[in-house]
Design goal:
The protein folds into 2 domains: 46 residues, no CATH class; 43 residues, no CATH class. The strands form 2 sheets. The chain has a two-stranded antiparallel sheet. The chain has 89 residues and is of the alpha+beta class.
Length: 89
């Protein structure tokens, strides 16, 4: 379901999100994200991103101060940075 409250300019209204695939090199029709279907109501988003990883770039995502406390504990317990940043061919 597209969020029709958002303007065609790509600027989302309050309560909407623009979501992008993690591979910046791909574009529609090879990837399905907001470039294909437009903004989504924020109520469709369940969860949040805690950590991002790209070649030669990675780190925790800054969420709210309250969430940062919980996020830090989860990342400490479950994130294997060495594995995430290792290159395998």
């Amino acid at each position: 379901m597209r969020c029709w409250a958002c303007r065609p300019s790509g600027v989302c209204s309050t309560g909407c999100c623009w979501v992008l695939a993690d591979n910046e090199a791909l574009a529609p029709p090879h990837v399905i994200d907001s470039r294909s279907f437009g903004p989504l109501p924020a109520s469709f988003i369940h969860g949040r991103i805690l950590y991002y990883g790209r070649p030669n770039d990675h780190g925790p995502v800054q969420n709210s101060a309250e969430a940062a406390v919980v996020d830090e504990l989860l990342l400490e317990a479950e994130l294997d940075v060495d594995k995430l940043t290792s290159t395998t061919e």
